[in-house]
Amino acid sequence: MSSKIDELKLDIEELSMLIKTAKRPKITSFLSLELRKFETALLKLTEEEKRKEGKDVGAMGDCNKAPTTNRTQPCYDVKLSTYAWDQSDKFVKIFVTLKNVHTLDKDKVVCVFDPSSMELMVKELENRNYFFRIKGFLHEINDAESYIKVKNDLVTVFLAKKKQGQKWSYLSLTEQQLKEPKKTPSIEPDEDPSSSMMNIMKKMYEEGDDEMKRTIAKVWTESRDKKDVVA
């Protein structure tokens, strides 16, 4: 167990050195994410070894108990969902409020970008690891030019627009789907009414829930049976 812990410590030390020398934001974010994985693994192994040592000491009797030591409290993961956003011609800016975030070291606040999503990670803030994710932006971003800024109790995420000057009505596709009313299928003036109705029924079937699908299937079956009787 101790050999694994030693190896992890060496890996963490080397990753930390790489982060300090990295210049590209995307590379820094990637390395920081890997560093967190190693730190989590190290914490688990350390806790397991301490628990094992505690059992061994207990078996030797109260007179041989090791002196009590302070253990590092584990960090718990917390998902952030509250934010505000604004935009300029070049950037979409996301504002995430988090008390005391400015007191952390630079490598504890990182953000990973790709053209359609982002993940903000705030590590070891008062025994909490905070995460903020958005998947499926309304439009693509330039992930290489995107970055974050940390100020008093605030993290600002700068999403570089791939198409500068393009206005974003929503931040994500999910938000657009939730807020925009669905268009009701209509019959075109020059279209065969029976064909149009069939298209509407198909669309309702594809988008409907199980109850809707059963109802439409029943209507189709009854309609077919009537046609067979007439024939």
Give the SSE map.
Elements: H1 2-21, H2 25-59, E1 76-79, E2 84-87, E3 91-97, E4 109-114, E5 117-122, E6 128-135, E7 147-151, E8 154-160, H3 173-179, H4 193-207, H5 210-230
Parallel strand pairs: 1-6
Antiparallel strand pairs: 2-3, 3-8, 4-5, 5-6, 7-8
Keywords: Acetylation, Cytoplasm, Nucleus, Phosphoprotein, Ubl conjugation pathway
Domain CS: 78-172
Protein name: Calcyclin-binding protein
Question: How would you describe what is shown here?
Answer:
One of its GO terms (molecular function) is ubiquitin protein ligase binding. It is found in: Cytoplasm; Nucleus. May be involved in calcium-dependent ubiquitination and subsequent proteasomal degradation of target proteins. Probably serves as a molecular bridge in ubiquitin E3 complexes. Participates in the ubiquitin-mediated degradation of beta-catenin (CTNNB1). It contains five helices and eight strands. With 231 residues, it is α+β, with helices and mostly antiparallel strands. The strands form two sheets. The chain has a four-stranded mixed β-sheet. A four-stranded antiparallel β-sheet has the order 2-3-8-7, with no helix packed on it. The termini are far apart.
